[in-house]
Amino acid sequence: MLLRILLIIGLVLLIYFGLRRIWLDWSGKFKKDEEDARLARRERDLAERQRPDVIELKRDEDGTYRPGGKDGADKRH
Question: Of 23, 24, 59, 75, which is most buried by a Cβ count within 10 Å?
């Protein structure tokens, strides 16, 4: 009877640690994938910002975002 209890406890521990290992491995992979995607988005945004047809908006005194620049004119035209 004691041997049966020890076997069951051993199996439960093996299953627990196996599932825990799988969970940690997958969580780490998902975190790494998320970080890679965030870095790719950041690089894309930085490259897109350098394009000539992109207007940089500045926050005005009233809180509205408007195209910046010396004269406040739209740079596209």
Answer: 75
